[in-house]
Amino acid sequence: MGVEGIGARVARKEDKRFITGRGRYVDDVKIVGLTHAHFIRSPHAHAKVKGIDASAAKDMPGVVDVLTAQQLVDDKIGNLICGWAVSSKDGTPMKMGAWPAMAPDTVRFVGQAVAVVIAETKNQAKDAAEAVVVTYEELPAVSSMTAALASGAPQLHPEAPGNVVYDWAIGDEKLTNDAFSKAANVISLDLTNNRLVPNAMEPRAAVAEYDDAEEHFTLHTTSQNPHVARLVLSAFYNVAQEHKLRVIAPDVGGGFGSKIFIYPEEMVALWASKKVRRPVKWTGDRTEAFLTDAHGRDHISHAEMAFDANNKILGLRVKTHANFGAYMSLFSSSVPTYLYATLLSGQYNIPTIYAEVMGVYTNTTPVDAYRGAGRPEASYLVERLMETSARQLRVDPAELRRLNFVTQFPHQTPVIMAYDIGDFGASLDAALKAIDYAGFPARKAKAKAAGKLRGLGFSCYIEACGIAPSKAVGSLGAGVGLWESAEVRVNPVGTIEVLTGSHSHGQGHETTFAQLVADRLGISVDQVQIVHGDTDKVQFGMGTYGSRSAAVGMSAIFKAMEKVEAKAKKIAAHLLEASEGDIVIENGEFKVAGTDKAIALPMVALAAYTAHNLPDGMEPGLKEGAFYDPTNFTFPAGAYICEVEIDPGTGKTDIVDFVAVDDFGRLINPMIVEGQVHGGLAQGIGQAMLESAIYDDNGQPVTASFMDYAMPRADDVPSFRVSHTTTLCPGNPLGVKGCGEAGAIGSSPAVINAITDALGHNKIEMPATPGRVWEALQLQQAAE
Length: 784
What we know:
single chain; alpha+beta; globular
């Protein structure tokens, strides 16, 4: 490890512009002739659009045009797609209802757009939108899965009878039932995984420009994967031809999965820019974010775990209902199936698993990937069930887990995943030591004497990251490959540009990716520039999600670097009159091993471009590219322990200690890794204790602002104690596993397990607000 190489705690290069207010976000884009868009959105959860009168609005000051959904239809703009095909257990394909960018005839959730005003200023567009008269015929709505599945319930889509998207299953049902028939004990649990709103710091935005002379579109957008956006916009939505569309995702202020998808607003902005022959800008406000950004989670599950007489797990049965909202989003079909059910084995050696998942339409905002995407839901179910099992079996929760840990690798689970490496016991041991587990009974007694309730909860999570290899995900229905690309350009003076198909929206790629190059060549990170987020500059890439940037994106850079180094060594050997096999790279120089002969990187680069003295047959230049497709997922894992104290008089819960021990493989930059974990822990604690998106029976959102939707604040989270164990991933050349989602995956069950331990019963769901905790205490007192 060098001072700035792999493993060094290098300060983030990109933070200089962010903390000085010099970041360049979509809303900062200024173009001559720019107009502003404001969408007219449905106030109803379910209604027929009977008519739109925009005559008064068109006459208002500054209005350029008012465009309607019917015009989209007339111009043959396509409907939004779901990019992952999942079939029901009877073999029938999923039932995908048509999702137009603006609704021409029927709206299916509050906030769905029916028209858009284009005006000279944002305020003029807003004022004119108030003058657009939309006539609706309100229809009955269903806001919960229970209501949607009830006999005679209103139907959202004619393609989906009974509002069922699919009825899917994984595992061996007969083998699992046989295991349960032999069980000494069966533990069951009903769980709700609450719906969340992503709330990235930067709202979604789009600036679209059409060049009439070139018949070319440019879209600046808040995207996690600009190349995929360009592909989908051209191939499926008929907005523009791919080679006539440039997509730029500049600085993006957080995504958490919610900016993976192509939303209606981007489609409409592009289309409108051609209709009005002017650039069009839309920046969402926070209310629009609550109403239209893809929500996360929202599962209802029944789970059963079978144990033998020695407390070894025999099998697991799960039945989950997953709320899709009003439409299927880009990856929504995969989240409660292949990203959730395939992780239900957790860290445990479970011989057989059978899981059923029913996807359900409701008149609510569409649901898709949110930080962790299926893995938090799986971890929550498994870890809540393990903690409940330990209590009912009257065994120590740490020892029940240890007894059932996978200890031999590789390990094939009964639900597709093949774990390559890990040491789950080491992480648990480190967490137990850090929390002073042996001292907990004394702390609990001391709290009781002070009139407080203490509880301690475990979570031993595992996740699958990288979302690859492409052949594997393709066989499961994915519509795209999930490799990554990189190009390394060594300039004539020895500076380096790395073009990556990954996209950074807070992960620190401009630093960590540069550290890899610096480590390989022995140079400063300041000599390395990372280029991403522009389809005209960067080769096709798959973007950032699923904690794949290091395991897949950096591995592509590693492969490209190998090619660059191989060519550079040939040039150096030629110039130094040495054998290529004797050339080593140290401190920015190419040296002949065992001698004092050396040539600096800038001189090698210059020689490559002047081409005056290259080896015979070598072409000039020093630039190489690579595409990397992993051989397996990566499997970060860890042990989290949360300790809480509850005030019985108010129900207020304080997290008095939180220990997180993670195994992420090799750490490129420990400081950035710890920051990622801290952010994930805050989001997981937010879900466990504060956040929940709620709709009333008519499909009206009750929590559509920060007045009603409680985000975690600084005083809601403790000072985390984070540490690491290490097993190097054998599936990629860097040995990395991924760290971006772990905190959000492991923390929620640890918190709820601690709260239920303090309460002495399981009768509480997320979020465990003070009101809910107080009510749970009253129920307990009444029962006693």
